[in-house]
Design goal:
Elements: H1 3-7, H2 18-22, E1 53-59, H3 64-79, E2 83-89, H4 92-104, E3 111-115, H5 116-124, H6 132-137, H7 147-151, E4 154-155, E5 158-159, E6 162-163, E7 165-174, H8 175-180, H9 192-204, H10 216-229, H11 247-261, H12 273-279, E8 285-289, H13 293-296, E9 304-307, E10 318-321, E11 323-327, H14 335-350, H15 352-356, E12 361-362, H16 365-368, H17 371-374, E13 389-390, H18 399-413, H19 419-441
Parallel strand pairs: 1-2, 1-3, 10-13
Antiparallel strand pairs: 3-11, 4-5, 6-11, 7-8, 7-9, 7-10, 7-12
Length: 443
């Protein structure tokens, strides 16, 4: 009943399988210098006074957030008679594979919404334009955003993305199931000891309380969070070597796999079965994305709470990603369209409070700290995670490497290999992929 909602999230934040698509030859898309119209003031999008322009915008918001996004675009069009933005929406997995070819053929969009971890790849391939003037015109700087979100929009010290939001993993708990096991439904576990104690009580009541998915959504993201909670990282500081087989990583993976071995989770959990079981009252706890908040709100009888992730390791951490606005390069540059696109990006950035209602945390600090945002149920609850969010590195071609990380966890969760062997094998493959990326994109 929520298949469309679930399918759109398959590749929501990780760029899985996108290395090959992004490496397509983009003939002509990066070097066009002819102008079909010139003369619009390049003022970073503060305003646009030129002739009417029609802009194409691509995005992957196919769920409830898509409806809110389209309403905001309609509002923008109403308020700007000389700019008309037409929205085209794809599933994220189709979106990133279609974009390079469309740009190469001259049929790409003018504006593209892009995840933070994809910016460097598409910037390196010459698909998107620099946006330093937009940040300057808006007087935006790192102090207005979380440092990781702000820096994630940079490639070779040039800005290619204007941050719109951040979306972390959150903790969902079924209050009814907890209550039946004698647990306080208003006090979800926050520590490792609390968590394991609660699972033991649930097990006594005949409930496997924490279903561990072997898939990226959501077991892989859970492991990603736990690895950082244990103090590990996926890569070294320069993203030259994979490090997700470190002692902290093995310990985090072992803890999660042991959930299955100790009977707190079934084995071989199907894709999205962990979340569906939570809603059906068959388990108690689920680590999932902020994008599920709107889904649980659809059921007025649902007794599902939302909280920041429990701290299982030595420090708090949560997987997260961020949507950014980008301007796509064209074969023949149109200065008027570029200026109009910048006006739209500025306008949407300023309306990020409205966007937050789609289940996203505004990237702008002032909006995030305002009373209006704090009044949005559950979404504001997860905003505290921004202080310790573990974002993917902004490095070209990293999609396939991160897929290797998730596949390694999959092998451990399915008991095909021990956690250490699975992660060791994954790191060996990842290091070869990183070496290939350095040859493709430069070090």
């Amino acid at each position: 009943m929520i298949q469309n909602e679930l399918s759109r999230r398959r590749l929501l934040g990780l760029g899985v399988g996108l290395g090959a698509a992004a490496s397509l030859t983009l003939a002509g898309c990066g070097g066009g210098s002819a102008t079909t119209s010139g003369g619009a003031a390049g003022n970073g999008g503060k305003d646009y006074t030129g002739p009417k322009v029609d802009l194409k915008l691509w995005n992957g918001f196919t769920g409830g957030d898509g409806d809110i996004f389209k309403k905001l675009v309609q509002q923008f069009n109403t308020e700007h008679q000389n700019i008309a933005v037409a929205v085209t929406t794809y599933q994220w997995d189709d979106y990133y594979s279609k974009l390079p070819g469309a740009v190469s053929s001259g049929n790409g969009p003018d504006i593209a919404v892009m995840h933070m971890d994809q910016l460097a790849t598409f910037a390196a391939r010459g698909v998107i334009n620099e946006l330093d003037d937009v940040a300057k015109a808006l007087e935006l700087n790192e102090g207005d955003f979380a440092p990781t979100v702000w820096k994630g929009g940079l490639y070779n010290d040039k800005r290619y993305g204007i941050p719109l939001d951040m979306h972390p993993l959150g903790f969902y708990y079924n209050k009814s199931v907890m209550q039946k096991a004698g647990l306080d439904p208003e006090k979800p576990p926050t520590t490792k000891d609390d968590y394991t104690a609660a699972l033991a009580e649930l097990k006594k009541a005949g409930v496997q309380g924490f279903w561990v998915s072997p898939f990226q959504f959501t077991g892989g993201m859970t492991f990603y969070s736990l690895l950082h909670q244990w103090g590990g990282t996926l890569f070294d500081g320069e993203v030259q070597k994979a490090t997700f087989n470190s002692d902290p990583a093995v310990e985090a993976c072992t803890w999660l796999v042991d959930m299955i071995k100790q009977g707190y989770s079934p084995a071989n959990v199907g894709q999205d079965a962990d979340y569906l079981a939570l809603k059906a009252g068959k388990n108690a706890f689920n680590w999932n994305g902020i994008w599920q908040i709107n889904d649980i709100a659809k059921d007025p009888n649902a007794q599902i709470g939302v909280a920041p992730l429990p701290q299982i390791g030595s420090q708090p951490a949560a997987w997260a990603n961020s949507h950014n606005f980008t301007i796509v390069k064209q074969r023949a540059a149109d200065n008027n369209k570029v200026s109009g696109a910048k006006v739209f990006i500025n306008w949407l950035s300023e309306h990020s409070l409205d966007w937050a209602k789609g289940g996203q945390i505004p990237a702008r600090k002032a909006v995030r700290e305002g009373a209006d945002f704090k009044a949005i149920p559950n979404v504001s609850t997860l905003a505290v995670e921004l202080d310790y969010a573990a974002f993917p590195p902004a490095t070209p071609g990293l999609g396939e490497v991160i897929l290797t990380f998730y596949n390694s966890f999959n092998e451990a969760a399915l008991n095909k290999k021990s956690p250490k062997q699975a992660l060791d094998d994954g790191v060996a493959k990842a290091n070869k992929q990183l070496e290939d990326n350095r040859k493709k994109y430069g070090s």
